[in-house]
Design brief:
The complex is a heterodimer of chains A (436) and B (275). Chain A is an alpha/beta fold and 436 residues long. Chain A contains 17 helices and 12 strands. In chain B, helix 11 (192-208) runs antiparallel to helix 14 (240-269). Chain B has helices at 2-30, 35-39, 49-59, 62-93, 97-108, 114-131, 140-144, 151-161, 166-174, 179-190, 192-208, 211-216, 225-232, 240-269. The chains are: A alpha/beta (436), B mainly alpha (275). Chain B: It is found in: Cell membrane.
Chain lengths: 436, 275
Amino acid sequence: MKKRLFIAILLLTMLLPACSGKKTETNADAGSAKGDGAGTGAGTTVTAWAWDPNFNIRALELAEEAYKGEIAVNLEIVENAQSDIVQRLNTALSSGTPKGLPNIVLIEDYRAQSFLKSYPDAFYPLTGHIDADDFANYKIEATSHDGEVYGLPFDTGVTGLYVRVDYLEAAGLTVGDMTNVTWQEYIAIGKQVKEATGKQMLSLNPNDFNFVRMMVQSAGQWYFEEDGSTPNLEHNEALKEIFRVYKAMLDADIVKLNSDWSQFVAAFNSGDVATVPTGNWITPSVKAEASQAGQWRVVSLPRLQTEGGLNVSNLGGSSWYVLNQDGKEAAAAFLADTFGSNVDFYNTLLADVGAIGTYKPGIAGDAFDQSDDFFGGQKIYSDFTSWMADIPAVNYGIHTYAIDDILKVEMQKYLKGEDLDTVMASAQAQAEMQLR
Amino acid sequence: MKRLKSIAAYVFLVIAALISIYPFFWMVVSMTNRSVDVTGGRQLPGTYLMENLNNLFGQVDMVTALGNSTLVAVISTLLTMLLTSLAGYGFHVYRSRRKDIVFNVLLLSMMIPFAAIMIPLYRLFGRISQVAPWIGIDTLAAAFLPTLTTAFFIFFFRQNTGMFPEELIEASRLDGLSETGIFFRIYIPTMKTTYAAAAIIAFMNSWNNFLWPLIVLQSPAKKTVPLLISNLGSSYAPDYGMIMSAITIATLPTVFVFFLMQKHFVAGMTGSVKG
């Protein structure tokens, strides 16, 4: 009987290695081995983590095709959801176990500072590999720490106001009436459109502060002072104005509330809203409803009536980072040769993926001058890139999403009738408590 | 009056059943619709089933993920049941005051959330990788090793061992059966129903496990189904028809295991253990 138990245990221990399968050949030789140039596919293996197969992953694939550097690079792209990348990076870096981490990782700009500050030695500075002046100013601010540039800026989240021409016309208005307006004017137009068509002006999710973040940056402000860690809420005039605008929009009954991303997309795909103020990355989702071709235009974002309020802003966007481990030189060289300097590559990126880069010499090519029939022949990409140049640079700090959570609660209090200064003071106190 | 009461009860139950089954209905229906229709809230079956499935199997490696998940779930379920039932049996049959203290300490470990031990655990596996790469980071074995012996299952088996008649043990000892023999030849066959219930829970836990596999499995070839589904929703323009197809497929094995084990489960409820 004991024999049988022994055999059973023996079998189990043999099973364990079996499920580990054939490993090691993938990342065993990541790094160290200098590329021998001549060999095809025998170069340094560089692993990259990114999300979205149609956007970031595709961009990496195009970069691999475009790469002509001296060090032979074997790019291995691993697709991960963004939240999954954040979780993995945090666990691996805070446990001090870099095994299995990639060479290149995509990080959203809002989260970049928290990684750079929390794990100062984990990332490899790219200052010597790229020329920071070549990139949109606001991107460099987001990807730098202690005077070094750590991220190679990738896509822009330059914003625009997507508008339905047919709804505007039904209200006796033109696209020109929506151009370079303030949010107050926007609300007034919204009422007219609602009266004429019965359609709401925009769709908002009270639990998603994309809208607020977009507006804050349009005034050159953020949730923090310039140091990126002192909360700046109580005396932040831009933020207060946003709260007022938000309430005014709800009071005017021009908002269709949504509770998640799919409802947000549905709101404009089904024709329930007349405008979509958001980042340019929404373009493919707008175009997904082919029956609305020709009805959409993109104009500049409405501005806040505060000091420094502009008709441009940014929402989201991310950048490439190199981890400070074996293979970093090859990874940095790969990025520098493609995203960091290749003008033609950026043309391909736009034509193939619809990605607008933030590399200034790269955004002037032919692809950016194309007109788009879906948008009534408008050259939307050249519009987006011209707005991009004016996006105010702000320090996103290390706690953007934590402040979001605080403000969401305070916003609801304000909408229920509490005094604006009181809720902002409360938000400030909470932020100082939590983020000390 | 009595009839009226039962009608009311039925109406209530029917409504409750409809509410709980609705998400499943919508999931299956959405599997046959385009992404635009799904976000638009279409409730009727469409004609895009094949297209969604083709997209799913064409764009992502669903087959590998299903294989990985099955391998991990089956092995971890079997090992969990063997190890935790041995422990539970031991705690109950060879009871002593000191063992009870050990058991209570073990129960306390149920209070510690996984997130709290995640980072030390990852560190541990980082070390393991250096000496035994075949069970280290980025291996399927690493995905289930930490969850094999949970206090919950040891507790579960210890409690259920109370139903196991001690007389059987004594009789077996008199007949000259060894202690391990009693466990494997008397205890396991008698406690089939307990094992069935544990198997359902263990399989579901393993099949749906997300956080730890997410951290420890890194290469695409090692992905399990929950990790793959998490990826599908990550794009700026997610394809909801495809995601719903993947989720429907991911739900099937759990349903299958439940119905397979249900017979034993029910048999256990009607009392198969004779004193």
